[in-house]
Amino acid sequence: MSEAAPLNVQTADTRVDLKGLPPEELQAFIATLGKERYRTKQLLAWVYGRGATSFDDMTDLSRAFRRELAERARVSQLTEVLRTPSSDGKAVKFLFALSDGLRVESVLMFERNRRTLCISSQVGCPLDCSFCATGKMGLLRNLTAAEIVDQVISVRRELVASGDDLTNIVLMGMGEPLLNYDAVVRAVRLVGLEMGPCLSAKKVTLSTAGHVPGILRLAEDGLKVGLAVSLNATLDDLRTRIMPINRKWPIADLLDAVRRYVRRIGRRVTFEYVLLAGENDADADADRLIALVRGIPCKINLIPYNPIPGLGHQRPSQARIDAFADRLRASHLTVNVRYSKGDDIAAACGQLITETARR
């Protein structure tokens, strides 16, 4: 399996896109205009905090400065194509069009006092996990930092207008975040800006299928995001069959990287385990899972499989789900059974796919 090479977005608009610029780069741009340093904070607040999409919205800037900005810069924006609420009101799926016509999906989830946005990092995914619809698209391209962060800005804008706000971000949408490392890390830092959404890295969870170099790079960079590792099997043969990435980085290598991450960052990790009937849900699987994670500060998220037509997997019975969870808990592991929100709108774990990526 080859890694995804960075795929750049081509655009005819040569103006500087302010969305996606961190403070130091925005300050450098402001300096080229001969403007004062405090203008940087003003623009950061407008772009990332208030979600402005036009310089005309930036009413505390002079008209002359706004005209100059419009000539030299732009503020890119995703186009919302479709919004689909779940029947129980606990999830809303957003379909966004990108500037080149490709489309990605994000999901807003409501749970008690939490407002969690699941965002995408790629258009499609190259990893082809057998239980995930997104992988059937293949990889069309990486998202830019601006496109990643704008999923947050676009959804948050309306929440704030209604007196609400986001509390958490999860990079569990379309794509493998660690195959788009630089853009993802830049976006995480942007959503943490005090003048913006102000969601620190501790409020962001990054889910990986097991990209070992990316995990080690996260540890080296000291970015204290929550790390969720999609494990899903306790034997290499099975994991390779359902997750081809395991051919390159088998379970032992993956767990070694996780241990190094925990030692460096000091946060426990989450192991995600999609339960597939008759494949990875036996008592023996639970016992091997207990042995594999022993000594790693972690919690286990069990995710009963969300059926996807044509993929050939089945969801276990409730009795089997409960028995698997109880066996883990008997060994004093922290276990959550995550019943995905939005399965009626194809917004649950593994279901995100743009049926036609471009229209």
UniProtKB/TrEMBL annotation:
Binds 1 [4Fe-4S] cluster. The cluster is coordinated with 3 cysteines and an exchangeable S-adenosyl-L-methionine. It catalyses: adenosine(37) in tRNA + 2 reduced [2Fe-2S]-[ferredoxin] + 2 S-adenosyl-L-methionine = 2-methyladenosine(37) in tRNA + 5'-deoxyadenosine + L-methionine + 2 oxidized [2Fe-2S]-[ferredoxin] + S-adenosyl-L-homocysteine; adenosine(2503) in 23S rRNA + 2 reduced [2Fe-2S]-[ferredoxin] + 2 S-adenosyl-L-methionine = 2-methyladenosine(2503) in 23S rRNA + 5'-deoxyadenosine + L-methionine + 2 oxidized [2Fe-2S]-[ferredoxin] + S-adenosyl-L-homocysteine. Pfam families: Radical_SAM (PF04055), RlmN_N (PF21016). Its cofactor is [4Fe-4S] cluster. [4Fe-4S] cluster binds at C125, C129, C132. Keywords: 4Fe-4S, Cytoplasm, Disulfide bond, Iron, Iron-sulfur, Metal-binding, Methyltransferase, rRNA processing, S-adenosyl-L-methionine, Transferase, tRNA processing. The active site is at E105, C349. GO terms for molecular function: 4 iron, 4 sulfur cluster binding; metal ion binding; rRNA (adenine(2503)-C2-)-methyltransferase activity; rRNA binding; tRNA (adenine(37)-C2)-methyltransferase activity; tRNA binding. GO terms for cellular component: cytoplasm. S-adenosyl-L-methionine binds at G175, E176, S207, S230, L231, N232, N306. Residues 111-344 form the Radical SAM core domain. One of its GO terms (biological process) is rRNA base methylation. SUPFAM superfamilies: Radical SAM enzymes. InterPro entries: Aldolase_TIM (IPR013785), Elp3/MiaA/NifB-like_rSAM (IPR006638), Methyltransferase_A (IPR040072), RlmN_N (IPR048641), RNA_MTrfase_RlmN (IPR027492), rRNA_lsu_MTrfase_RlmN/Cfr (IPR004383), rSAM (IPR007197), rSAM_sf (IPR058240). Signal peptide: none annotated. The keyword rRNA processing applies. It is found in: Cytoplasm. The keyword Cell wall biogenesis/degradation does not apply. It comes from the Bacteria. CDD domains: Radical_SAM. Its EC number is 2.1.1.192. Reaction proceeds by a ping-pong mechanism involving intermediate methylation of a conserved cysteine residue. Specifically methylates position 2 of adenine 2503 in 23S rRNA and position 2 of adenine 37 in tRNAs. Belongs to the radical SAM superfamily. RlmN family. HAMAP family: RNA_methyltr_RlmN. This is Probable dual-specificity RNA methyltransferase RlmN.
